[in-house]
Amino acid sequence: MLNTVVDRFRQKLQTSVALGIFSKTTDSAIVEAAGLAGLDFIILDMEHGSSTTETLSHHVRAALLTGMASIIRVKGVDPQAIGSALDMGSVGVQVPNISTAEEARKAVKAARFYPGGMRGVCRFVRAANYGGSNKEDYFREANKAILILQIEGKEGVENIDEILDVEGYDMLFVGPYDLSQSLGILGQTNSARLIDYIQNLLIKAKEKKILLGTFSDSLENSKDLLDLGFNYISYSVDVSIFRDSVCSLIKEFLREKQ
């Protein structure tokens, strides 16, 4: 089933736009509900989230049951963390804070088996049906996992040409909030200066046929990103979406009472 979800998600990215959310919940029922609602993917966040590896493994199962792609965002270019995320059976891994081509190469090396990389080898993991998968099939199919490199600082933008020349990853993800901080305009995600940087990244990525993703916390901004040509848009965070929905419910209830 994992291979089917990976293939379907790859096709979606190539032919349309994938919509997902970030997740910081520790409750796998929330992940399952997001998949049942019809989201294309969910980013399980280890960088700013509090889930343990054990909790994430349950999240990955919940996503897979609904056919939703699970992407684990690790804390950085950590080969052990990258390999572990993929061993769990996640559809892909997202690596933050990529600033140089060397860091990009290290991420690729950690996420791919030979000849694409040197990912730690163990076939007795969930991704290989705990040893039940044919070895050759598993190693081949595992290298189809989605690898996303996150560019979120001025240094990464300045090194974009070299990063784009690195082979073995599938997508660049622009982190608008961290990028705004590195430009000295913290939180100004609608700044013309920030948008110019992002548009330049988009143009360069398209020239190299690299997919581009980003984060949005407003529906209006998300529509603009669709028009720009982003392939992978993560809208807000599950716990924030829940909070906002409850706030709207309370306001509507109070309005009905008046």
UniProtKB/TrEMBL annotation:
Single Gene Ontology MF annotation: aldehyde-lyase activity
Alphabetized Pfam families for the sequence: HpcH_HpaI
Keywords: Lyase, Metal-binding
One Gene Ontology CC term in the entry: cytoplasm
Domain of life assignment: Bacteria
HpcH/HpaI aldolase/citrate lyase domain span: 20-243
Entry similarity comment: Belongs to the HpcH/HpaI aldolase family.
Protein known as: Putative aldolase
